[in-house]
Amino acid sequence: MALEMRARCERCETAALPPGGPARICSYECTFCEACAAAMGQVCPNCGGELVPRPRRAVPAAANTGRVGVIGVGEIGRALVDGLCAGAGEPPEILLSPRGSRTSAELAGRYPNVRVCADNQDVVDGSDVVVLAVRPQDRTEALAGLRVGGDRVVVSLMAGVGIDELRRTLGSGVPLVRAIPLPAVRERRSVTVTYPAHPVVDALFDGLGGALPVADEAGFGVFSALTGTLTSHYGYLATLTAWAARQGVPAEAAERYVRGLFQGVARSLGDDSRSLHQLAGDHETPNGINERIRTTWFDSANAESLTEALDALLADLRRSG
């Protein structure tokens, strides 16, 4: 089984650890940044074992997309920069907006190909691909007065903001593409939905885990709604951990077990030869404990409630787009 390339330091929880970069691990794959490992004397706090350098994974270089500008450097913007800089080849020049100045300054200090611009117009003027990663509710302030021309391509990561609305806001005829990258672009493992297909944008995301162009904006909205379920999974795991703690299990032990349990599930999803229903069957014994929870908790009423929530979210996304 392949070594799990964890993307964050388990001690400080802020240092990004791309597969091609330095990190320290123990024999159980607990993973730490170099600074934290040194502070702990190269000893794992979980098992007491030695921390050694993690093997670096060869990561293909990103496609040559020219200079990439990012307006709005939040969590997704940061992950995108980390992913673009993690490849084995020469990374692109990346221009960051001063919006999110703390994160922008941190990234510019870490990567020599990254610099912070004076303002958003400076980002646009210096870029070939402009990524709009601001929150949808902040778009009016962030994009007001921007002049986008020439042969630039604009990539919008703003949920619920359609192509037509964005074109009215920018007042430009340049190519506009919507995309849904996930935090896993940091490790170049995110399948990114795009619309419409564009060779430069799809090549960019192919280098970050894969591009999935869709045929129309209606389909794009469906994938956007699916993305809205992501944090519910973490809430589910937190609920399991809290239940175990109420039964008298130490909270740290419960969380460690739940994390390990579902990391195994995540690895099984990499087997494309098995459908999701088949994978569920692989983990379930007839009349066993997994079948019991699935049929008594995630019953038809629960499934219908989830369907209704997704329907409502999709309707809102289509209205706002």
UniProtKB/TrEMBL annotation:
State the family it belongs to. Belongs to the pyrroline-5-carboxylate reductase family.
One Pfam entry name: F420_oxidored
Which InterPro entries would you find in this protein's record? DUF1272, NAD(P)-bd_dom_sf, P5C_Rdtase_cat_N
**Domain annotation Pyrroline-5-carboxylate reductase catalytic N-terminal: ranges:** 67-160
PANTHER family per UniProt: PYRROLINE-5-CARBOXYLATE REDUCTASE, PYRROLINE-5-CARBOXYLATE REDUCTASE CATALYTIC N-TERMINAL DOMAIN-CONTAINING PROTEIN
Name assigned to this protein: Pyrroline-5-carboxylate reductase catalytic N-terminal domain-containing protein
